[in-house]
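Incident log, support desk, overnight shift.

02:14 A customer reports that sequence design results differ from what the structure should imply. Their input is reproduced verbatim below. On-call engineer (initials T.W.) acknowledged and began investigating.
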């Protein structure tokens, strides 16, 4: 009897150890010591990162994302000749290359997935490519390529997201967020700027609420977040709010943006101030109130993510080659720094 109880206790202990761990994949730049995409074990109770492994050797995987079933991982290859690659997630968290396709533009910097479609944003090429995904996770060559360049303005497509039958594309060079709609299995342009942006704002990334009623755009050049509310024919402007501390006067450039799972808080990263800006969000009106600017304990926070438990926020500091871990206070949304870990040139974090 005592032996059976002992086995049960051991089993419960092992179950607890496995359930409190999540896998974090890290995309990097490989022009230094980094070799590609890495994996870490992340403890969702303590916030500790451990067991670093090279998951896949690949060039400049500066943005990575999962398929909806998490069986496959997709990565851009940011270079003069842009590429996008499909990987199968292995049993030991290693990534097995399935195939690679042309991104149809230079410096692809973002990829997003919606069921059996992918969209890639090419920063220096100024193009946006749409791909269909096969049942084995492989990518077909692009079925559509949108060129946002004009004779007088260079496009810098920076991110894109699907929402139901809509596709939104943030174009830093054209200073607008484009809207495409799926019709007869192809995307067609609806609007080249869903909101009137301030001059030279530089929209980079954005977050949509789950119901699609609100959009929050982080602007690289203006160091602001532009908020919009869904209206007939598009979005109406709610506000522009600074991401920087009132006493910060030096140069800074915004990067990433994320909503908390309950959508009560919004977070944005500042490269230069080297901080995370924290906003309290009115879930009825959609308006934001800045409540904190906290140091990332590193240099150039290009990307950050919130862990699956919602208790931690992790920041990829590109120039200082470290990942910083923060505890999120559930009641207020504010952050407190816990620790960091060194890893070469991290630029994208994926749970």
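02:41 Re-run completed on a clean worker. Output:
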């Amino acid at each position: 009897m005592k032996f059976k109880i002992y086995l049960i206790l051991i089993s419960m202990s092992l179950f607890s150890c496995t359930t409190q761990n999540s896998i974090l994949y890290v995309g990097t730049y490989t022009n230094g010591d980094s070799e590609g995409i890495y994996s870490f074990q992340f403890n969702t109770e303590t916030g500790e990162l451990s067991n670093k492994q090279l998951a896949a050797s690949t060039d400049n995987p500066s943005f990575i994302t999962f398929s909806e079933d998490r069986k496959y991982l997709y990565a851009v290859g940011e270079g003069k000749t842009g590429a996008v690659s499909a990987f199968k997630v292995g049993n030991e968290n290693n990534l097995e290359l399935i195939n690679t396709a042309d991104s149809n533009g230079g410096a692809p910097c973002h990829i997003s997935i919606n069921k059996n479609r992918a969209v890639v944003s090419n920063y220096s090429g100024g193009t946006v490519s749409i791909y269909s995904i096969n049942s084995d996770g492989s990518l077909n060559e692009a079925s559509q390529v949108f060129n946002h360049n004009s004779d007088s303005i260079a496009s810098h497509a920076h991110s894109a997201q699907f929402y139901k039958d809509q596709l939104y594309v943030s174009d830093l060079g054209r200073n607008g967020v484009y809207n495409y709609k799926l019709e007869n299995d192809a995307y067609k342009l609806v609007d080249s700027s869903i909101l009137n942006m301030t001059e030279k704002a530089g929209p980079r990334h954005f977050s949509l609420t789950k119901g699609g009623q609100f959009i929050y755009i982080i602007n690289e050049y203006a160091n602001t977040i532009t908020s919009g509310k869904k209206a007939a024919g598009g979005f109406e402007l709610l506000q522009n709010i600074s991401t920087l501390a009132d006493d910060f006067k030096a140069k800074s450039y915004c990067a990433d943006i994320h909503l908390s799972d309950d959508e009560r808080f919004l977070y944005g990263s500042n490269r230069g101030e080297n901080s995370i800006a924290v906003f309290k969000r009115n879930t009825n009106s959609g308006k934001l109130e800045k409540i904190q600017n906290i140091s990332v304990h590193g240099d150039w926070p290009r990307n950050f993510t919130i862990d699956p438990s919602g208790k931690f926020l992790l920041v990829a500091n590109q120039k200082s080659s470290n990942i910083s871990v923060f505890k999120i206070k559930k009641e207020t949304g504010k952050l407190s720094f816990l620790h960091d870990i060194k890893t070469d040139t991290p630029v994208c974090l994926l749970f």
